[in-house]
Amino acid sequence: MSVTDPQPPAPDAGADAAQEALRDRIAADSLTTRRDYLRIVATVSGGLAVGGVAVASGILHRHGDPDGTPEVKKVADALPPGESLAFRYPGDEDRAIAVRMEDGTLAGYSAVCTHLACAVLWRKDRGSEGELYCPCHEGVFDARTGEVTAGPPPRGLPKVILVEQVDGSVWAIGTARSGESLQEGYCRQRGAGTPPCAALRAGAPAARSGTEGSERA
Fold this sequence. Notes:
Layout: H1 13-57, E1 73-76, E2 84-88, E3 95-100, E4 106-110, E5 121-123, E6 131-134, E7 139-142, E8 148-150, E9 159-164, E10 170-176, H2 182-190
Antiparallel strand pairs: 1-10, 2-3, 3-4, 5-6, 6-7, 7-8, 9-10
């Protein structure tokens, strides 16, 4: 080889060591990322499973089982036929819905699906009387009774006991569990010996009350 020929660069031990360290760091970071991802997936999946079981088995708080006697609460000044109204009852965190059907029937329910606690919505244009619908997993409830008509919910919606005053105002006076009648729920919360128990009145002024779902008198 002529002394004028270009010589190959001498190996740089420091550069090789840096490249090797970089490869190790990337491999370690990738492994950590995969582990973290799997840990997050496992945690979320486990949480959803436990939550679902808890809701289904009744471990978590159910709408319709407030601590103590629920307060009487004005829901609306009026609710026209064919309309619905979202409100909170019995507590400030409890979603509820009132529905006035075309024939004047007034019904109130928890707006929390009994499947996995998604929000329940009113769909006026579905069926002859409308329906209560959970968009998360296509759960459907009967507007008059709150019972399940389609989808995965394991039981009907808890009820909110509504009464209407002579001035048209709508009041919530109690709740009933899934499968429990309005009267049973009211008497359980207010006491079976309460004189107006059979009429579903709970101290609201001169309430006009109905039967299942609460109707105009």
